[in-house]
Amino acid sequence: MRPLMSPAIVHLALFLHVILLHPSMLLAQTSRNNLTAGGDTLIPPYYITSPSGDFAFGFRPLDSKSNSSSFLLAIWFFFDGTVVWFATDASSGSAIVAAGQSVLSVSTTGQLSLSNPGENNPLLWSPSSDHGPVLDVSHVVLNDTGNLQFVGGAGGSSVVWESFQYPTDTLLPGQSMLPGTKLQSRSADTGFSLGQFSFIVQGDGNIVMYKMNTAADSGGPVNAYWSSGTCCAGNTTLFFDVNPPAYLYFILSDGSRGNLTTPQPLPSTAGFYQHATLDPDGLFRVYIRPKNTGGKKGNDTAWSIMKQIPSVGCRSLTNGQRGMCGPNSYCIDLPNKRIDCACPSGYVFLDSQNRYKGCIPTFLPDSCDGKNHTAEFEVQDSPSANWVSSVSYKMHTFVTEEQCRHLCLNSCSCAVALFNGNNCSEVGMLVAGWQENGTTMRTLVKVRTKSPPVQMLPYILIVALAVLLLVTTCTLLVHCYITKKARKNYLGTRVFTHKELCRATNGFSNLLGEGGFGKVYRGTVKSLQPPEVAVKDLGGCKVEYKEKEFENEVRSTGQIHHKNLVRMIGYCKEGVHRMLVFEYMQGGTLADTIARSERPCWSFLAEAAIGIAKGLEYLHEGCKSKIIHCDIKPDNILFDDKHIPRITDFGIAKLLGDQKTQKTVINTIVGTKPYIAPEWFDGVGKVDSKVDVYSFGVVLLEIICCKRATEQPTDAQAPSTMFPLRAWVESLIRGGNAELLVQEESEALAYTESVERFARIAIWCLQKDPSTRPTMRKVVQMLEGEVEVDPLPDPPMPSGLSAVLSSGSDTRHSSSMVHAFQVE
């Protein structure tokens, strides 16, 4: 349905209404300084002025174009248009933008509102105070100080609202800021969206300037870059004085006074226009401009800066780092005392409308995927800047600039190299810097020059659509074929013949590895998707494998369906042959990952640890019958093609079924030192899922440090024990030196709190008393930050466990006979 009247017709009708009933508004706008309830209205582009004509209030075009269709409801210096206040949205803090058909009016009930007539939600803005909506307004006045006042109330002469109490980014002479009041910068000199900086008179008495957090858009003490140093004084009030000698000053609760503008006072307001503004670059500046120069009101002069806070500009500290700009950008002090931000070579602004948020690369960064991408990049010079706040993950000394370029180019983690003298720092991400004349630091930026190989996605889609019907038809045929070929199905797993597996593994020639329960071969079963499999031959294993043990493993693995556990596809039980068929994992083992010369990034290690924990949690609590793995170690943790960790090798898993099975006495244990929990060696005792928790604690330490559990730390003062890694980690954590665990990995250094939390969790998992170890469910919750980690217990007293563990020389596999114990 078409509307009865278009917005243009509505606007024309309102315009004619003003002409016919209120012609004085059009003929003498600049001579009026008030609006009256129940009669006057204001529409774009009109305004009212103060009695002196210095200030105007009304609709100001959003840009300098005379034909602009967007307007601010604002107060400005009439002679040059400098905005000193504008209406903002109460929730977002952004400027209210009015359209050509907007109307400002005071209703007969005394409520002032800005609205768009004819729209579904016409109200754009209505003033409110700390006590709620402002009502009973009889008239609106703009006085000569630039203060907009709504007058009304019971007697019709009380000020019920005034702009001086609700500043935006500017203070005027005579204005004050009470505790809890703040100024918020704009994004740019010509823009009115929310900026990055705030100036707050806090309730604790401190006056503080904050840089907003780019990710969360919220300020906090960590982002403060200036303060008055009056914390805890209470009830501080800031004043913009008008009486000579004039200052911008504050008064504390005890009556003492401090000046922000020193040492010289501000000039008299009788001869100078003045305003103090929190500019888009984050600096609070006091501006002055002579009045009545050449018979005109300041028209032939410009605003000059009388005072700026902080005075150091680009050298201001934000978030403990120098510079007012965001990540990957640097700060520039301009000749006009303003600040600007710039990006290094190959980077652009994250937000072109707000240059203080930082920069991002215009190219796809290097990836540490094991491939050599050196030919796709080059190192370019960037304008000289000081980046001393940036965290280096690798430092080289006594190198040339050319060697520094080469080092960064050949490191997949290096984004920028900083060369200073004969020192070269490889940096993963630049922290805010500043341009400094005479600096000797060279900024060498790694920039992509060739695009990575393009995926043939469009062609793949075409081919996929072309064969869709064929695949659908073949799926039914293959399913029927496999169903007929499979002679038996045990708990949803496929039964293979020995001949099939011999053919799939090319005569068992492709050996992947060998463990305590047999050899593992790589094979291909064309009827599967994907066809690659791992075949575990249980014949000829080092430990006697009885029939009940084979059935135990089939039952354990056949019921598992979890993304962090390797799925068993089928098995072979033909004559003397006993084999299990698993998914093939292409990503290698966690042991291989830890042994790499180049340490993996912390985010990858943390996700791997959480995934392993979730897999164990599923075994303990997610299966129909509880499963204890009993041999958790890096060699039994594989990665698939998406780098997701998967737990494998249930060769010694014990399936816990009904209560009778749970009380069964097991006479043989098999594990791998030093991952075996102490209770295995107690002679008689209850063994439950806490043995897996202990093993996970060892693995978690290895993940954190990228060292094997039996590897002696390089720290000469670390204690030498059978389990040196735990002793070394626990000594660092108790000493408050968690950063030494990951001192070679820049990303992990940025997450030292997370590293320390993981290490504390590992120490809890390694408690000798099983009852004090957490469950795997709680371990997952602590790793993900959902549950706090308890303070570490007192260090354990030395026990005989080390002697028992060190009695054997084999550090990979062991079998220990004990008399009797219960599995619970």
From TrEMBL:
Alphabetized UniProt keyword annotations: ATP-binding, Disulfide bond, EGF-like domain, Glycoprotein, Kinase, Lectin, Membrane, Nucleotide-binding, Receptor, Serine/threonine-protein kinase, Signal, Transferase, Transmembrane, Transmembrane helix
Residue stretches making up the Protein kinase domain: 506-793
Bias type Polar residues, positions: 804-817
Bilayer topology annotation: Single-pass type I membrane protein
Sequence intervals crossing the membrane: 456-482
Residues binding ATP: K536
EC number: 2.7.11.1
Molecular function per GO: ATP binding; carbohydrate binding; protein serine/threonine kinase activity
Signal sequence extent: 1-28
Reactions performed catalytically: L-threonyl-[protein] + ATP = O-phospho-L-threonyl-[protein] + ADP + H(+); L-seryl-[protein] + ATP = O-phospho-L-seryl-[protein] + ADP + H(+)
Localisation per UniProt entry: Membrane
GO annotations of cellular component type: membrane
Ranges for region Disordered: 804-824
Taxonomic superkingdom: Eukaryota
Family, per entry: Belongs to the protein kinase superfamily. Ser/Thr protein kinase family.
Name this polypeptide is given: Receptor-like serine/threonine-protein kinase
